[in-house]
Amino acid sequence: MEKKITMEAIRLFAAASGDAAAFHTDPEAAKAAGFKGPVAHGMYIMGIAHSMYLSQHSEQWIKSSRMRFMKPAWADTVARFDYDCANHEIQVTVIGENGETLANGSFSVGGKVDDL
């Protein structure tokens, strides 16, 4: 599954999360910090991974999650989210437009609310 990481979404996430670090929202500040442009928040990328998976598996819910970030997810690029599902452990890899792995991780899922 693919998702465009827009500057608007990054700004909305910054406002909602309270993480207003300038390198996320200001191109000049991002360049001054050594980046080629604004960088999406890691938790935003993890949230996309969760929501995209759950959009296809609405009977499940996430019990725990971990993710490692290797490269920045730039504003206004498309990221691909690849999933490998084994029982209740979901492996996710986030791939950038140039084919580089941006992040990888896993999350465990449960079934119906009755399974709590």
Automatic annotation (TrEMBL):
InterPro entries: HotDog_dom_sf, MaoC-like_dom. Transmembrane segments: none annotated. Residues 3-87 form the MaoC-like domain. This is MaoC-like domain-containing protein. It comes from Paenibacillus glucanolyticus.
